[in-house]
């Protein structure tokens, strides 16, 4: 990262902290007070795409306190014991969630992820060839870790399948899969629990 980029970063964090001090001082947090238990007893896994930050809750009529929201690149679960799945299980066992929604989206950056280009960008930003080799030798294959998908519906269905078939998922928990259009907010059902 160039020094100019660091300068911008510090300016942004300063701006955030200044805003936050006023936010707290003026008690602007009051309308958002709620408990840690989701009102709708639901946990959602979705993508970290910036277009969904406000659109997804609005498109689903969700308000502060309604759901537990987990995000990652692509709303992808590949491993039954990765951090996302652990978050889902915590939401179920500790926070009373009874439904899980996996929500992918159209035009997702993970749908055209090229791991070769991604690795080149790592090198361009200072990650050494030795570090990349060490990771490969340790069994961490960047292609496997960062590969995307070609079909969002199939990706959502795959993630839903991992959740539904998890050995620690209680039978009463319903797991659904959807895809949202980040341009319109339209939701399409991929799979609905019986």
From TrEMBL:
* CDD domains in alphabetical order: beta_CA_cladeD
Which one Pfam family would you cite for this protein?
Pro_CA
**Species of origin:** Tigheibacillus jepli
Q: What is its EC number?
A: 4.2.1.1
Tell me which domain of life the UniProt entry assigns to the organism this sequence originates from. Bacteria
What is the enzyme's class at the highest EC level?
lyase
Under what name is this protein listed? carbonic anhydrase
Q: Which cofactor does it need?
A: Zn(2+)
Q: Does the keyword Cell membrane apply?
A: no
Similarity comment text for this entry: Belongs to the beta-class carbonic anhydrase family.
Tagged with keyword Metal-binding: yes
Query: Reaction catalysed by this chain?
Result: hydrogencarbonate + H(+) = CO2 + H2O
Provide the alphabetized UniProt keywords: Metal-binding, Zinc
């Amino acid at each position: 990262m160039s020094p100019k980029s660091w300068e911008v970063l510090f300016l942004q964090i300063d701006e955030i902290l200044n805003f936050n001090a006023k936010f707290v001082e003026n008690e602007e947090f009051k309308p958002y007070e709620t408990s840690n238990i989701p009102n709708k007893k639901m946990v959602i896994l979705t993508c970290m795409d910036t277009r969904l930050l406000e659109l997804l809750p609005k498109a689903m009529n969700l308000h502060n306190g309604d759901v537990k929201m987990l995000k990652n690149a692509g709303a992808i679960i590949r491993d039954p014991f990765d951090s996302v799945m652990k978050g889902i299980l915590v939401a179920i066992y500790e926070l009373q969630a009874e439904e899980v929604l996996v929500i992918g989206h159209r035009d997702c950056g993970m749908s055209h992820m090229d791991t070769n280009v991604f690795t080149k960008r790592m090198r361009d930003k200072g990650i050494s060839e030795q570090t990349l080799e060490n990771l490969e030798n340790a069994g961490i294959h960047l292609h496997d870790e960062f590969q995307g998908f070609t079909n969002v519906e199939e990706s959502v269905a795959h993630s839903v399948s991992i959740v539904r078939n998890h050995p620690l998922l209680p039978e009463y928990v319903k797991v659904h899969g959807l895809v949202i259009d980040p341009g319109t907010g339209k939701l399409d059902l991929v799979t609905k629990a019986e």
